[in-house]
Write a structure and sequence with these properties.
The protein has 242 residues and is an alpha/beta fold. The chain has helices at 19-29, 54-61, 79-100, 135-154, 187-199, 222-228, and strands at 8-12, 31-36, 45-48, 66-69, 105-111, 157-163, 165-166, 184-185, 205-210.
Length: 242
């Protein structure tokens, strides 16, 4: 596809655990700009900045069609020192900057930790109330609700991806049944999920779970299939053989 016809995507947190697996595919299919706290050596347009720098975020958003927001403190941490600036203020700055820059869609990396206080022997539906197991999980609920506000009040399309537990194929915890078996998200399926969220037409506002084929399917993938067309390829029972 000619570069002029490709979607323009701003990816925050491109050097993170999941972000670095998205870059190659995103560079191939989109006009990609990355936003990170530290410089990278990769080719392309790489903006160095901080989520607390609103003007820097807004400048980076110029000409962007889709914001893919991964940058965050990625697990439980000090609320005042890390979660507040990165997962609360940082999310607000990113979404408000996207609005002011005319971004059409926000894809937000939420987390399965928004619901993992449900009993482990029952399947969780996306329609059930949130039950976060951590303050980190609660910050991800904030991002989903803030996305609802920007959709309803400002018309920005929003996709919240409640990501499972990302792990590489050779992770030792995949050798035998474990809690990870219920939550696993593989690198290949992560790329597919985010691309579906970027490219699916007329998405409106939606929040879905995102995992690979787990055993059992603790987080219901029906809405991800229905709303995004996401069908995972990797099976947790065969991960180590890939």
């Amino acid at each position: 596809m000619p570069a002029a016809n490709k979607l323009s995507v701003l990816l925050t947190g491109s050097s993170g655990v999941i972000g670095k697996h998205l870059v190659e595919s995103f560079q191939k299919h989109y006009r990609l700009v990355t936003f990170d706290r530290r410089p990278t050596q990769r080719k392309g347009v790489n903006v160095v900045g901080d989520l607390c720098d609103f003007e820097g975020l807004k400048a980076a958003m110029k000409g962007t069609d889709v914001l893919v927001h991964l940058a965050a403190t990625s697990d439980e941490a000090s609320f005042t020192k890390e979660l507040l600036p990165n997962n609360i203020l940082g999310v607000y700055n990113a979404f408000q900057a996207a609005y002011e820059a005319g971004v059409k869609r926000i894809v937000f990396a939420s987390s399965c930790q928004t619901v993992t206080m449900y009993p482990r022997d029952e399947q969780v539906q996306i329609s059930q109330p949130v039950r976060p197991e951590s303050v980190y999980g609660a910050t991800k609920v904030f991002g989903e609700v803030l996305g609802r506000y920007y959709h309803d009040r400002c018309g920005i399309e929003f996709v919240g991806l409640r990501l499972g537990a990302f792990a590489l194929y050779r992770d030792p915890d995949l050798e035998r049944p474990s809690w990870l078996w219920r939550l696993w998200l593989s690198p290949r399926d992560a790329v597919s999920l985010f691309r579906c969220a970027v490219e699916k037409h007329e998405i409106g506002y939606t929040v879905v779970f995102g995992t690979s084929r787990t055993k059992p399917e603790f987080l219901c993938l029906g809405p991800a299939r229905e709303h995004l067309g996401f069908i995972p390829k990797d099976d947790v029972t065969k991960a180590r053989s890939r």
